[in-house]
Specification:
Elements: H1 21-48, H2 50-72, H3 76-79, E1 88-91, E2 93-95, E3 98-109, E4 113-115, E5 126-128, E6 136-137, E7 142-146, E8 149-155, H4 171-182, H5 197-210, H6 221-249, H7 255-276, H8 284-300, H9 308-333, E9 344-347, E10 352-357, E11 370-374, E12 377-383, H10 385-388, E13 396-400, E14 406-415, E15 424-430, H11 435-441, E16 445-454, E17 459-463, E18 468-469, E19 475-480, E20 492-503, E21 506-513, E22 521-525
Parallel strand pairs: 8-9
Antiparallel strand pairs: 1-22, 2-17, 3-12, 3-16, 4-11, 5-7, 6-10, 7-8, 10-11, 12-15, 13-14, 13-16, 14-15, 17-21, 18-19, 19-20, 19-22, 20-21
Length: 526
């Protein structure tokens, strides 16, 4: 209050003198003017100090936020007074428990190999019978036609590396015999490694079933056979002549020779008789000598003759026949059926699927002509040695088909790695697949799960962390019977259990002392 201002005292309304209507109206008008003036003043203040008011509003919001944070923050001293946490528990599970090995596997056809054809003995131009990709090669299939000649598919592991004909021997001959027998052709003794006449006849049947003529014999082979046959006939004629000579040389005296000998003996006997009777001009001694000579000559006619030269001639003639017959047999073998290495393709695990073809009609063979694989689908996976040793041939696994359903696959082979650090190769044979499923899976990589241990039906199981050892080494678990949030004050009991299969961090348990049911809470941490 200023010094020159006179203090005023406002009186209650009931003590003010009564105003006339005109005065009241005038005062009301004045009051309205004053209110209008105040509103206009506030507007001018707001428009002129907008930035100031925004800053003030932010300050108010910050103040309120600070009050709220301060309300809920706990000081370190207060935090030390928070209650202890409760027991860490998990419920007992009831169900099947299994231990699995999981690995990735590529889906494809089994045993893909590149096929090469031996063309060293003939032409190399493909003239027909080129299979399509996806075709199946079976025994007696024609893999290719080269220079008009077939390449016949037969089962076997050894590749064809030489022409098989009468007289050769070896393991490839045994393989050929076994292959022929497998397709119903009699090839003789399959345990013998000799290509003989029976085997040659079997090769003839092979070409007949394949629908192709036999391979042509070598040039001049027919002429050689005819010459050998003529040689045999000539040698046989020589033997006949030698036999006749021997027979003649060893024959007895003729009738004439016998008659003449008997006449000479009779004349000598008569001369001796005359001499003894004193006939003139005779000598008894001489007559006796003449008679003895005549008798010896007659006896000599029946003595054995020396036929050594005739017999030697006969032996030589017979040897010539033997040599001629051997030459004939050799000549005939040269025209017997044989199997060129270029006309046979031995493949294991028939049938086979053609995966790729590298030649076409009219082209010359160079390198691999095609790639074939087993006609059955196989899964090829890899596993660490520790996991692979848990598996065994015949173990069952499952993988997902493109539609999400599980499909069974069986471990067919385990191949150890080259060293301890290398992964093992695991091969699976899936259950039969449809053509559409094979088409969708071919070349894909799938996840295979193999159960290496499983419980027989549903069992009780708890986490491995729930097990503790008792004073006697027995396995125990602690079951909570009150609220776990009570911590150390919670009521618990110990149950002695017998453990079983452990898998995926859990273990099968069977109560031995105490009760245990599905859903019971067991302590895994405090």
């Amino acid at each position: 209050m200023k010094d020159d201002e006179t203090p005023t005292t406002e009186l209650p309304a009931e003590l003010l003198p009564e105003q006339t209507p005109d005065v009241a109206l005038e005062e009301a008008a004045q009051t309205d003017d004053v209110d209008t003036s105040r509103v206009s003043g506030w507007r001018r203040i707001l428009r002129g100090n907008r930035t100031l008011w925004i800053v003030a509003a932010c300050a108010v919001v910050s103040l309120v936020a600070g009050l709220l944070v301060g309300r809920f923050l706990i000081s370190p001293a207060d935090a030390s007074e928070t209650p202890d946490p409760g027991l860490v528990t998990v419920p007992v599970e009831f169900g099947a428990l299994s231990n699995d090995v999981t690995l990735r596997a590529d889906v494809g056809y089994a045993d893909a190999v590149e096929v090469t054809i031996d063309t060293t003995g003939g032409g190399s131009v493909v003239t027909g019978s080129v299979p399509e990709v996806g075709a199946t090669l079976n025994p007696l299939s024609i893999a290719l036609e080269v220079e008009g000649r077939p390449v016949i598919v037969l089962p076997g592991e050894l590749p064809a590396y030489r022409t098989l004909r009468v007289g050769v021997s070896g393991p490839d001959v045994i393989q050929l015999k076994q292959a022929l027998v497998s397709i119903g052709i009699d090839a003789g003794d399959v345990s013998s490694n000799l290509f003989d006449q029976t085997t040659a006849n079997a090769v003839g049947q092979l070409y007949a079933q394949a629908g192709y003529p036999l391979p042509s014999p070598e040039e001049g082979a027919d002429d050689t056979v005819r010459a050998a046959e003529e040689g045999v006939r000539a040698a046989q004629s020589g033997v006949a002549q030698a036999e006749q000579a021997l027979a003649a040389a060893g024959a007895g005296p003729s009738s004439l020779e016998i008659w003449q000998a008997d006449v000479r003996v009779a004349q000598a006997e008569q001369a001796l008789a005359d001499a003894k009777n004193g006939a003139e001009g005779t000598n008894v001694q001489q007559a006796e000598w003449d008679l003895q000579t005549a008798r010896l000559e007659r006896d000599q006619l029946w003595a054995g003759k020396d036929t050594g030269a005739e017999r030697a001639a006969l032996d030589a003639a017979r040897q010539q026949v033997g040599a001629a017959e051997e030459s004939l047999a050799s000549a005939r073998e040269s025209v017997l059926p044989y199997l060129p290495s270029s006309e046979v393709l031995f493949l294991t695990e028939l049938p086979r699927r053609v995966d790729a073809v590298n030649v076409k009609r009219g082209s010359a063979i160079s390198g691999a002509v095609m790639t074939v694989s087993g006609a059955t689908v196989r899964l090829t996976g890899a596993a660490a040695e520790a996991d692979a040793r848990l598996l065994e041939v015949g173990a069952e696994g499952v993988f997902e088909l493109p539609d999400g359903t599980e499909h069974r696959a069986v471990v067919s082979e385990l191949k150890p790695g080259k060293d301890a650090k290398a992964r093992w190769e695991v091969l699976f044979e899936p259950d039969p697949l449809t053509a559409e499923q094979i088409s969708q899976l071919q070349g894909s990589n799938v996840r295979v799960r193999i159960a290496v241990g499983a419980t027989e039906g549903d069992v009780l199981s708890v986490p491995l962390a729930a097990l503790t050892a008792g004073p006697g080494g027995e396995s125990r678990i602690e079951v909570v019977e009150s609220d776990p949030r009570e911590g150390e004050d919670a009521k618990t009991r110990l149950v002695v259990v017998e453990t079983g299969l452990a898998a995926k961090g859990a273990v099968e348990v069977t109560p031995v002392e105490g009760e245990l049911d599905e859903g019971d809470l067991v302590v895994v941490g405090k």
